[in-house]
Amino acid sequence: MGFRSVITFIVLTFALHSCMDDDGGKIHQAYGLLSEHPDSAYIILNDIDYEGLSSDADRAGYILLKAESKKAMGRSLISDTLLHYAVAYYRDRSDTLSYMRASFAFSGHLHSLDRGKDAYAVLDSAYSYVFGDTSLMMAVNQERLGLSFKYKDYVRSLDLVQSQLGLTDDAHWRIDFEIKKISPLISLGRTKEAICLCDSLFALSGAAGMDKGQEMTLRINYAAVLAEDPESSQKAVRILEGVLEEYGDANNAKFELYIPMVHLYLNAGDVESAKKYIAIVDSVGFGQGRADIVASSYFEFLKLIKDYRTSGNLSMSRLTGIAKALRSADDNALRRMQERNDALETAYGLSRNNYELTIRHQRLLIIFFVIFLVAIFGIGVFYYISYKRRKRLIEAEERIETLQTLVKSAANPATERKLGLLQKLLLQQLGIIKTFAGSPSTQNQEALRKISNIGNTDVMADTLVKWEDLYPVINELYGNFHANIVGAYNGLFSDREIHILCLMRAGFSTKEISVLLQQTSNSVYVSKTSIRKKLALPPKDDFILFLPQRFEA
After folding, report:
1. Quick one: how far is CA 459 from the chain centroid?
2. Which residues of the chain register pLDDT less than 50?
3. Residues 501, 534: contact at Cβ < 8 Å?
């Protein structure tokens, strides 16, 4: 296999691998569906093998989108144990928006585990990261504020609302944040402050910045503040009745206020009005409202108070039923906690298995890569050795052919007497004639191979030819050619260059010279170029014709 074939094989292998990897496209498709169709995005993400993802970017995107699609579908994030990897990835790459999204999702995951402090810590870290960018600081504060309400940490809620007020001059947002103060103030028993806040906000009612929705929310919260004091219950009732009239036929929105209306009427001593709203709730059906067991138990307790106000009797069986319902709610909460812990344990187990699979996958990749490198190296070495061997065989064949030509020329009577004499003398010194004369013809080829490979050993060519014996012959045959070179150019030429000059004067070809001197033809050409430069001759001039003229001059 040639080197180009090996490179082609590698390129095709990686191209095929790239074509097979379309998970990045699926992740991009899921991102496009997330806002409008989170369920479809979740289905697409479930079709992706997380362990098979080829890049850290794809893995981080998969983790984040999976959590966001589940959150948009109202599902728990308890099993999303890899979110911290996405948080670290986006933070390291300074992708601020993705880092914030990952932090919000990771905080939700920690909240699902009841790790409130850790959830706060994640959001606090995100706040520090975006500090200085007002819009991003407000976005992080909104998440922190929501978390504080979930944990009923109303002191923190008030601090966060105050922080938001300090970050914006927008009238609409400022009113919205001021309204958010009311509920924490009530829960902390700071009723007077809540009433003063409501009164100040009512002074802005209808002013620029307060929309209809904010006004309705303010009125409902104001009624909740007034309901804390029996003396102001009638005022609270009037406020809520006005809100109910404003809602019109919006039954779902009105239903949220029916039970508080029962509470307010009972607190104000108006049992008949309380009965009216109790009848409405019973006729509509509690399932259309917030059908959690605590709210339904609260409603049953209000009905028990109504009956007590009407008849003066307190039904112990109904009170016991309410207690059982609340105990059941507590049991359900414990069961959900256990289910959450079981789910977490399962998630940790899957995470551990995924980690082990990842390690195995990486080991297999390393082994495959090492084998691949060894194979490539082995192919390269084999190709190099084969190339060198083939080159040596070609050179050996050429040497054999040249030696055979020399032998035939030396034995041919038609060869010029001087050249033939020098050829015979050189061949005798190399042992060629003796070898051919004493060896059967079937062995001549092997003998020639041995002689042609002399240059591949440590034996120097100078030891094969006795130039001290040849120089007198060259001088005799070619008009003191060697003596003239030494005399005219003393020290200019190296011994090897003098050898080449002598052989060229005798009429030997470049190939023949390379065999006799045990050099490659290229080396002989290089030496000839060096000689021409030392004689200051143009590239095309024949220095063998030039030298005798130089000697005569």
Report:
1. 59
2. 1-3, 6-21, 287-291, 434, 437-443, 447-462
3. no
Interatomic CA distance for residues 214 and 235, integer angstroms = 20
∠ CA 186-190-191 to the nearest 5 degrees? 65
H-assigned helices in 478-520: 481-488, 495-505, 510-516
Q: Measure the CA dihedral 143/144/150/153, to 10°.
A: -160
pTM over 0.70: no
Tens-digit pLDDT profile for residues 385-395: 888 888 777 77
Cβ distance 170 to 185 under 8 Å? no
Termini Cα distance of the chain: 60
Name, in order, each residue with C-beta under 8 angstroms of 166's C-beta and a sequence gap of 6 or more.
Answer: none
Asked whether the beta carbons of 253 and 246 are under 8 A apart, the reply is: no
- Encode pLDDT of 165-213 as tens digits: 999 998 888 888 998 999 899 889 898 898 889 888 877 765 556 777 7
Identify the H or E element spanning 209: none
- The C-alpha angle 254, 255, 258, rounded to 5 degrees, equals 95
Report how far residue 364's alpha carbon sits from residue 380's, in angstroms, rounded to the nearest whole number. Answer: 24
Rounded CA-CA distance 163/358 in Å is 44
**Residue 413's CB: how many other CB atoms inside 10 A?**
6
Contact 177, 164 (CB under 8 A): yes
